Amino acid sequence: MPGRQATIAVPASYDFGAALAFLRESPSAILESVDGRTYRRAWRAARGCELVSVERAGPGLCVRVEGPHVDAESLAQAVRKVRHILSLDVDADAFQELVATDPILARLVGDDRHARPVLIADPFECLVWAIIGQQVGVGFARSLRQALVRVVGREVTFGASRFGIMPEAQALAGLDEEALRALHFSRAKIRYLRTAAQAVAEGALDFASLATLPRAQALAALTRFPGIGPWTAEMVLMRGLGIRSVWPAADLGLRRALALARNEKGSVSEACARALAASWSGWEAWVAYFAWRSLARSARSP
Predict the structure, then answer these.
(1) What are the tens digits of pLDDT across the range 237-283?
(2) pLDDT of residue 151
(3) Across 79-228, where does the E strand assignment appear?
(4) How far is residue 297's CA from residue 281's CA, in Å, rounded to a whole number?
(5) Three-state SS across 19-31?
(6) Which residues pair with 66 in a beta bridge?
(7) Check: CATH 1.10.340.30 for 123-240?
(8) Distance (Å, whole) CA 221 – CA 154
(9) Can you tell me the distance from the alpha carbon of 178 to that of 27, in angstroms, rounded to the nearest whole number?
(10) Neighbours of 265 (CB within 10 A)
């Protein structure tokens, strides 16, 4: 199948292996294929579905695009999206300085100092995954996401491998409620998904415009829709749009990680979490990412 590739520059210390490790473990990474050295993901492009592969190439990363109508613009779009997913457009020097001088942050980051947050490929996908993840365990949420792609999305074949494609907003807006009920979706969750998808399909919720708003206004614009509470809205801004100033202080996992970093039991209060974040202004979402990663690290420790 026709393909094009480009090598993109990354900071010399960038830890691509940490990004692959995160994607292997993430319950949201159901459309991604990750092995020891390569990230693969299929998505819709202007002229059909394409497969994007990313792997180390000397000091940089090699981005390759395959598909029936791949051209220079396809490659350029893939490079832009890869840079977004891997947070490569951010100058992280100030964050590194914080890690070097802040003992709590240093404990949260641990050995991942040269890693960067991994975002979800598309803000609509992030919104759908966040709604599905509300008030259910991570394993069950993952199975629901897989079921949604299987029933509403589609699969494409590249070589000997098949890849799922995220459903479009219009398809989700008109999804068959009973089919998803049979897959253990609650009626409330189906209603929230359909409402959010309809808002995106009709332009009432526009992520490009959302990204330009001040944080408080962006949160308000999201939470006016039923089923999108503060936590879901924060996930969309952080992991879908890459807005770094978002701090989900109410998140219990985040507050547990902060307590561990302070050598305390249990979790810190929401007020304490907000007070601590004053030292990390402009990097709150990055701190939250590493805080959640620190919990996974602690779970693996004996």
Answers:
(1) 999 999 999 999 999 999 999 999 999 999 999 999 999 999 999 99
(2) 86
(3) 154-158, 161-165
(4) 25
(5) HHHHHHHCCCCCC
(6) 3, 51
(7) yes
(8) 30
(9) 25
(10) 8
pLDDT in tens, 45-95: 877 899 999 999 999 999 999 998 889 999 999 999 999 999 999 999 999
Please name the residues in contact with 94: beta carbons below 8 A apart, sequence gap of 6 or more: 282, 283
34-45 burial: b if 16+ Cβ within 10 Å, else e: beeeebbbbbeb
Query: What CATH number labels 3-91?
Result: 3.30.310.20
Q: Pairing state of beta strands 32-34 and 154-158?
A: unpaired
Tokens of 9: 């520059």
Q: For residue 158, give the H/E element and its range.
A: strand 154-158
In the chain, CATH 1.10.340.30 sits at 123-240
Q: What is the pLDDT of residue 101?
A: 95
Residue type, 91: D
The single-letter DSSP state of residue 236 is I
Please state, in angstroms and rounded to a whole number, the distance separating the CA atoms of residues 217 and 212: 10
**pLDDT reading at 1 higher than 70:** no
CA dihedral angle for residue 121, residue 179, residue 189, residue 203, rounded to 10 degrees: 50
Tokens at 126, concatenated: 């992030």
Residue 136 DSSP symbol: S
